[in-house]
Design goal:
The complex is a heterodimer of chains A (about 475) and B (about 270). Chain A is an alpha/beta fold. Chain A contains 18 helices and 16 strands. Chains A and B meet through β5 and α13 of A and α1, β7, β14, α8 and α9 of B.
């Protein structure tokens, strides 16, 4: 029987409603929709989709279990490699990963919506979560040596490393500098893409498995890595994430109302400034907002500014649409929500009023040239193309460099030119017993690549501790 | 949750709070700060560490009721709890044997000046402390400051206690006295630190200030605390909070401190 060419569509919040709230936009599959989609799967023997997954989720097997309505088994299969299916089902760029490898692509059909199925199962698991004994984890090994591992950072890399290590029988403590767990999943990704309650629920699964979490401890300040070893930890995994936001270094970036995307999103997502004054952290609600950048963070910033009530949100990006690194579905949703795109445009300065609040963004047009070292086409200013946009808020979403705190306070920890911790493909650093993965090693990337790094590092730590 | 071991007023709307925070007490040094949260829906705010006791495992904060969170802190009961406390943040003040030093504390800035003066004395420096308050009723920690300085000059704006005038007036007297001053430290309102910087710049005396930028994360990932120092963007929580006073763009700092005045009024 030939499979349906089209993937089962997923219901979304209508545009005119969703720009006024922070609720999730994609509404998830129902059980029937999931089953319909699951039955499109050809159950390929050689599993090409698995090759596309950074943590190698056993996709055909979980889909098979789903088709049998054995949802718990499907969840268990996913959790063998991915302990955060509610997160990855929502935020992974599946169209570049598992779904890109689906054979249906070559048959003139849409690939299986693997992400949507994973999300359905992840959400099902949280809704049906009862007590610890229901969390079935295969092959828990007993840790006869009673070894302890410290994990720095409760973002995707740290959580995945912790999950893998607890399953291998080690005692694990995760240290987090913020007052809430989740890293970029709570401060960076907006509520309307990844509800924070879901992140907390996924993390509570890890707590049920025995992972210890300590918030308000910044490793590098409250305790150093050396302190961790003195306290009896046998190994350390650093998943501290990205840090200092990049600014362009152009005049006016210090003006009030000019934010780094990190600050803007942290205020809104982590500190819930969209509920000010009920929540005490304020954020500027600009009427005319300019967002600089072309990645997912820029899309998140623009869509958030819209929801805060902006009449105009302008996305300014120095290259063309084809070069934008953001997920296509985020770009589509941003356009639907009325974000206005200024491609081949770059700001050169901001001007402010007498109180120091930003009022104009002076920009120039760009043109594309030859590919640069990264393979993307470089962009050059078009002479005499200056123009001005009236603004009352600017959000600079052009990436960040790794947090320097660990580099400064850990003698012997080798770092690269921009501060990334030097680590091999398994996370081994220049210090014995210290491993690292995620954005702190690679620079800003994705939740799933961080998870993959956390997983590989856990295996390396296990090997290291076995001696 | 952090236990509040003691809490009492030092002056109108100024409170001292002693917290059970052994990890922070073990590491804290003069010049560092903590990030505090007082309620579930509360903001994160920076407060300088006014004192610490490594043996007892306590940290002392002194704060003034100026906004939502400090008012909330003021309302906490003496045996209450703080929700979140992160520290010690920021770089410790660089302390060496400089020689003859002057430390200047303006109002609430007097609190972090105390551990600074103490550390300078421990390193063999001569310390002249100039501390200024609005009027007599706002004076606090006079005895504490006297214990850690060789010479203590008290000033009040209205002359109701000590010398009449601003701290900078007393500083200028000292600067013009011909005494060799090796380093000056100033902590207090931005305008005060700016005035100190202008006074010492003429005399070419190295001056260190502790900037009171607004913060959100306090750990180097958001950039809320950015300041312009010698034309370059720096982060108060990562590169500071101490900076060379003659390189700081105080006008930018002062304007940035006003970013949320509108929102603050609304509540």
């Amino acid at each position: 029987m030939k499979p349906e060419k089209k993937s089962v569509p997923m219901r979304q919040q209508p545009v005119d409603e969703r720009i006024h709230n922070f609720d999730e936009v994609p509404l998830g599959y129902s059980e029937d929709e999931s089953l319909s989609e699951a039955f499109r799967c050809l159950q390929c023997v050689n599993k090409p989709c698995v090759n596309g997954c950074p943590v190698r989720v056993n996709i055909p097997d979980f889909i098979k279990a789903l088709r049998e309505k054995n949802f718990q088994k499907a969840v268990d299969i996913i959790r063998e490699t991915d302990m955060l299916p509610c997160v990855t089902g929502r935020v992974c760029p599946q169209e570049e990963q598992c779904q890109a490898f689906c054979v249906l692509n070559r048959m003139g059909a849409e690939p299986i919506s693997i992400g949507r199925l994973e999300r359905f199962l992840g959400d099902w698991a949280l809704a049906h979560k009862k007590k610890q004994e229901d969390i079935r984890v295969t092959d828990i090994k007993s840790n006869s040596k009673n070894q302890k591992v410290a994990v720095v950072g409760s973002g995707p890399a740290g959580l995945t490393c912790a999950a893998e290590l607890i399953k291998k029988g080690y005692a694990v403590t995760v240290f987090e500098g913020f007052h809430k767990l989740g890293g970029v999943m709570v401060y960076g990704i907006p509520e309307f893409r990844l509800p924070k309650e879901i992140v907390a629920d996924e993390i509570s699964v890890l707590k049920d498995l025995g992972v210890q979490f300590i918030t308000n401890v910044l490793i590098g300040r409250t305790l150093t890595i050396e302190d961790l070893f003195k306290k009896g930890f046998n190994a350390v995994f650093i998943g501290a994430g990205a840090g200092l936001p990049n600014f362009m270094g152009i005049p006016g970036e210090h003006l009030n109302g000019v934010y780094s995307a990190n600050e803007f999103l942290t205020r809104v997502n982590l500190m819930k400034a969209y509920k000010f004054p009920e929540y005490h952290t304020p954020v500027k609600r600009g009427e005319r907002v300019v967002v600089i950048g072309g990645g997912n963070v820029a899309m998140d910033s623009a869509r958030t500014a819209k929801r805060l009530g902006a009449n105009h949100v302008y996305l300014v990006y120095r290259r063309s649409e084809q070069e934008m690194p953001a997920r296509e579905e985020e770009i589509v949703r941003a356009k639907e929500e009325g974000i206005e795109f200024y491609f081949l445009t770059n700001p050169v300065k901001y001007t402010g009023d007498e109180n120091g609040f930003v009022k104009q963004a002076v920009c120039v047009k760009m043109q594309l040239g030859e590919p640069d070292a990264s393979g993307r086409r470089s962009s050059h200013t078009v002479q005499g193309s200056e123009f001005t946009i009236d603004v009352d808020e600017v959000i600079v979403a052009i990436g960040n460099t790794p947090n320097p705190i660990l580099r400064i306070t850990t003698p012997g920890l080798k770092t690269k030119k921009r501060g990334e911790i030097e680590a091999d493909e398994n996370g081994k650093t220049s210090l014995s017993g210290v491993f690292a993965g995620g954005d702190i090693v690679t620079g800003a990337a994705t939740v799933i690549t961080a998870m993959g790094a956390g997983k590989r590092a856990a295996a390396a730590i296990d090997e290291y501790l076995r001696g | 949750m952090i236990a509040i071991l003691d809490k009492y007023p030092l002056a109108p709307r100024v409170y001292c709070m002693i917290l059970d925070a052994p990890l922070i007490a073990a590491k804290a040094q003069a010049g560092q700060f903590v990030i505090v949260r007082a309620a579930e829906k509360g903001e994160r705010i920076p407060l300088t560490i006014a004192d610490y006791d490594r043996e007892k495992g306590t940290v002392t904060l002194v704060f003034q009721e100026t906004g939502k969170t400090t008012r909330l802190l003021a309302s906490l009961s003496q045996q209450g709890t703080l929700l979140d406390l992160l520290g010690p943040q920021g770089n410790p003040t660089e302390i060496e044997r400089f020689g003859n030093t002057v430390v200047i504390g303006g109002g609430i800035g007097v609190a972090p000046v105390f551990p600074l003066a103490r550390a300078l004395r421990e390193y063999g420096n001569t310390v002249t402390a100039i501390v200024g308050f609005r009027s007599r009723e706002y004076v606090f920690w006079e005895e504490k400051m006297a214990r850690v300085s060789n010479r203590l000059i008290m000033t009040t704006n209205d002359g109701s206690y000590g010398v009449q005038g601003f701290v900078t007036d007393a500083l200028k007297v000292l600067l013009n006295s011909g005494e060799t001053i090796d380093r000056v430290f100033a902590i207090g309102p931005a305008l005060m630190m700016k005035a100190v910087a202008e006074a010492t710049k003429e005399k070419n005396i190295k001056t260190i200030v502790s900037l009171n930028s607004l913060m959100v994360c306090g750990m180097g990932m958001c950039g809320a605390c950015r300041v312009t120092v010698e034309g370059v963007t720096r982060f108060t929580c990562m590169d500071g909070p101490d900076f060379d006073a003659h390189q700081v763009d105080f006008d930018v700092l002062i304007k940035r401190l006003e970013t949320y005045t509108c929102e603050e009024c609304r509540e």
